[in-house]
Fold this protein.
Amino acid sequence: MAVVHSWPLASDLGGLARLDNHDAESLTWTIAWVAHILPRAPWQLFEAPIFFPEQHSLAFSEHMLVPSLMGAPLLWAGVSPVAVYNVLIIAGLALSGWVMFLVMERWTGNAWAAVISGLVYAFNAHALTRFVHLQAQHVEFFPIMLYAFDRVLVEARRRDAVLLAAAFVLQALCSNYLLVFSLYAMVVTAIVRWREVGSRKKELILAGAISVIVLGPFLFPYYQVDRDKGLARSLQVVSQYNAHWRDYLATGGRIHFATWSRQFYSGAIALFPGFTALALAAIAVTTARGYRDRRIQSVLAIAVLGLAFSFGTAMPGYSLLHNVLPLLNGLRNVARWGWLVLAAVAILAGFGAAALGKRLARWPQVAVVLCVLVTAESIRTPVGFTPFAGLPAIYDRLAGEPSAIVVEFRSIRERTSA
């Protein structure tokens, strides 16, 4: 399904790209840099050869450590960064859907419901309109984090606390945005399940300590850059990226876009979950058993958090929270908080599908129809990519000059280099 939703990317991994976009250019370079520096001088990870002579220059953007590590063996084998980037897009989509399937199968005991949840989670409007941003596809550790948090609260096992820390760290090392989203998702989960949290303090402190120790070296360069350069986002900047109610009706899915959603899509963000997913989520929260499920209550709280924060400065009180809550002032595009809404709908859809499965005699057939419906609502193939003919030959010459300092001047209109 990842190949289908990103088609025709898999047909020419080395010859198709989104290098018509500066973010895609930057991220393609980033994964190549990480793979280059780690086996040579890993302590120099953030001293990237850009913006010379600035220090910690990789911290001006996202380090993309985990996706870069996934692609590193291919880069070391000589595969082009463009091809590796494309493989990582497909891998991110596939892993995200697969992991959500694994978690929801354990939570519901219904494999078909888990498949539906995985499809809704991985192939949502937000991910499928952001192929230029590799981070948007690599959300595979978030479901494990929620699952491990639940296990800690239910069983208080130390190994679950370690799994919680590992999942949080890995998701945080995919994207700084996802670090913040994951952190606050756990905070609201803890608030909803406060009575259980009180008796699991040791395990949660263990998970927190592991997370801080592991993430510290990766966060400190960002702290230094912020201290020296003042890279925290001002409220004036944030206000330019507030979500609007129209964004929750926007999708790149071919059927919806062609019939009604086009008028709501601004080209900035798409957050419509799909009618089928919403209907299944509604079933999950309206059944008596489902409403009493603490996991469903936690997921609802995560959805409310994402919805409220996505409106940014348009939400009353956000300006105060922006200046008070940790890490919040590091986010510019606050509309992306809406991804939490889509993630929550995917989980709730799985619970709703499982509830249907218990009532319907021909559940497998109905489940297949539901899979077709959620796919038909989200699919936007063929996706538009641009041809990539390879790097200009001059870079081969520059690669042979280890002491060279290269300055590129790029025209915004003509996109030429000197």
